[in-house]
Amino acid sequence: MAKISGVDYNETNTDTKDKVMQIFVTRVKWAVALMLLVLALGSIGFHLIYHTKWFEAFYFTIAIMSTVSDPRITPHGNLEMAFNTLVIIVGTGVWIFGLSIIVSYFLESDLGYFRERRTMRNIAQMINHFVIIGAGRVGESIALELRELGEEVVVLDPDAQRVDRIRALDFPSLVIPGFNADALKVANLPKARGIALAMPDDAQNLYAYLTARDLNPDLLVVARAQTQESAHYLRNLGVTRIILPDLLTGHRIARMLAKPVAQDLLMALLNEEGVHVEEASITTGDPLAHQPIQKVRQIYGQRVTLIGYWRENHWHMAPRADELILPGDTIILVKVDES
User: Domain ends where: 226, 248, 270?
Assistant: First the structure.
């Protein structure tokens, strides 16, 4: 039984294998039913046409279906020839149908197994990637946006159908049985840079966060929450970046109605329509280190504006021109397209 990153392959793919097994069982039932029907009709035909005993008629049916030659079933008239021809055509078709079912089952199982192993090997080589918990519409949107930004992404979800859909978009995706440590290790979480908790169930997001925090305490975490209560629990546990989709949508619509122009500008910034919002971490050797804010345009260009910086867990928005940028700061820049 194959294990990768401490997770049993059969365990992580239970839903997919069950689905394949159900299809296989249904097809086998059809094949067996057709086989019994041909055997029954063939035995009756040989008994009546060749005047053989029942067991011998059954044997002749098996022989002719499997294309085994026997001089006792050589036709000597048009009726026998027509009957033999019909049994050969129908019986051979049933044999091929049954064999194809067995071969296709093993091919589907083995190909899925090797595809999963290849995905796991690729994930094991990732560093500074992002892990998305939840392959629904929100998780898909996050994955697409991160890929646009040039980031590597791994998507995990307990639902095989959601994983199949996001796999079609060519994302490394895996079905996991739950959110324990062994399940999350398949995403190489200890080497990841951040995690997005995008499950529609707040309890699942909470449990996934607790597990991820134990595996990698330095992870950047962004969580989706359905209620203020869930957001409160997540904040108490240390999650500082939380999105409440319903509350955010209502807030945004109200602002668009009351302050449409300001919100249009905000949406342009969020969607990077003609502008690009970037962040840069200032190191000791950076040209901006120990330089005043007014030097930003001399270094980055005249179409760049510094709107704020992050220092010692605090935002400093709209800083004065004479304020100094220090090593360790993270600055936020807005760049306007040249066009």
Answer: 248
